[in-house]
Amino acid sequence: MKEKLIDLFEYTRHFNMEMIKVISENRALVDDKTVSFINHTLNAQQIWNARILGEETFEVWQINPFESLVEINQKNFLKSIDIINNLDWDTKIEYQNSKGTKFENTVFEMLFHAVNHSTYHRGQINTLLKQNGITPVLTDYIFYKR
User: Fold this and answer.
1) CB contact at 8 A, 118 and 125
2) Who's near 30: CB < 8 A, 6+ residues apart?
């Protein structure tokens, strides 16, 4: 199971990178909403990692310097892998969402959510790319595995 979860985060890192690349290559055509969604996608993974580890979190919708997105993506990946390798996935973590409401979930649930959440937002980014005349990135997991 550990290898499968690591694979999902490798998939996430890979297609986050592809999105960053396409946005970078088409900056003149990309709208602010697209930039906001790629930032949110990366911010969310950082937030979930930080919640698990009890660290300082990014803001949900903060806009990072575009040139830092590749580094943020890589740091997120390495931190997620570290969590997978070193924490008990059944441990329950209490945290607050961005509105201050308290919740409790297992490490596994939080990690799985981070992967699923990024997939959802890459779909939104692809829709925006297409609306702006940019060829969307084929981000289906099966394409990654082929």
Assistant:
1) no
2) 23, 128, 129, 132, 134
* pLDDT tens, N- to C-terminus, the chain (146 residues): 999 999 999 999 999 999 999 999 999 999 999 999 999 999 999 999 999 999 999 999 999 999 999 999 999 999 999 999 999 999 999 999 989 999 999 999 999 999 999 999 999 999 999 999 999 999 999 999 99
Do 139 and 120 contact (CB within 8 A), yes or no?
A: no
Amino acid at 1: M
pTM: 0.96
Q: For residue 57, give the DSSP letter.
A: -
Structural tokens at position 68? 């830092």
Query: For residue 42, what are the CA distances in angstroms to 3, 15, 104?
Result: 22, 11, 22
- Residue 96 token pair: 């607050």
d(CA 96, CA 107): 15
Q: Which two tokens stand for residue 23?
A: 């946005």
Q: Phi and psi for 40 in degrees, rounded to 5?
A: -60, -40
CA distance 19 to 65: 15
Q: Give the single-character DSSP code of 96.
A: E
